Amino acid sequence: MAETVTFASLFGPSEVPEEKVPTDWKLCLFCQFKTNEPLTDLTNYYKKSYDTNRTYQELARRIQTLSDLNALPSYVDVNRMDNGAGIETTLGINKAKWHTNCYATCNSKKVERALKKRKLQTCDQLSNMSPVQKKLRYSTSETASCSSESNTAPVLTCFFCDSVIFGDFHRVETLSSDAKIRKIAHDLTDSKLLMKLSCGDMAALDAVYYKNCLTALYNQYRKFESAQNLP
Rounded distance, CA 222 to CA 200, Å? Predict the structure, then answer.
């Protein structure tokens, strides 16, 4: 087996990584600057019916999506927003505040534009791929050999969790199933799932999946719908 040589092994021990800069929760979540601009503080809302948790949930989802798409402003450090319990929980526990202008960098329009841009980039990549390559893009392991000399059969992977398929699995065969999953991905702004779906309908992609993964997605969506329907 060939030895892997890293830059660290060539130039000596690497430097100790910098510690994560803690967030000052009295300042703007995004820029962390002291300015004259007032901060939006959800705890000051007088309406008893106002659901602060829903706001934090939606904001956390947008931040994560934009982070996955590398579409956050350079001054926004998403690592500061997660204490290990997840972004949503961290924001809620610390009663995160923000400037209106900074918050606008993570609004729904920004997310839609970022997703559209990534979809166009994906489509450009797919335009140079053969139909067979498109079909295998998400139904086979990236590590499967594409060499014509290889006798190894393509390895199936779950469309949702990307793990290699072992044992029982299911295959998407109807457009109605694709439409339902597509709606869920859009409502949840699930960037990873949306990027996969941008390649075509799941039946055409010959998508396979574990039943537990689909059930988990449905449960996540039910939780999302329940939060949206709160008074």
Answer: 25
Half-sphere exposure of 133 (CA within 13 A, CB side): 8
pLDDT tens for each residue of 146-179:
333 344 445 678 888 887 777 788 888 788 888 8
- pLDDT value, residue 50: 57
The model scores a pTM over 0.70: no
The Cα angle at residue 27 between residues 61 and 56, in degrees rounded to 5? 20
Helix, strand, coil % over all residues of the chain, rounded to 5: 45, 5, 50
- Judge residue 171's burial from the number of C-beta atoms within 10 Å of its C-beta, 0-12 exposed, 13-18 middle, 19 or more buried: middle
Query: Domain extents for the chain?
Result: 20-109, 129-144+155-228
CB atoms within 10 A of CB 231: 5
Residue 109 CA: distances (Å) to CA of 35, 59, 103, 144, 193:
26, 13, 12, 38, 19
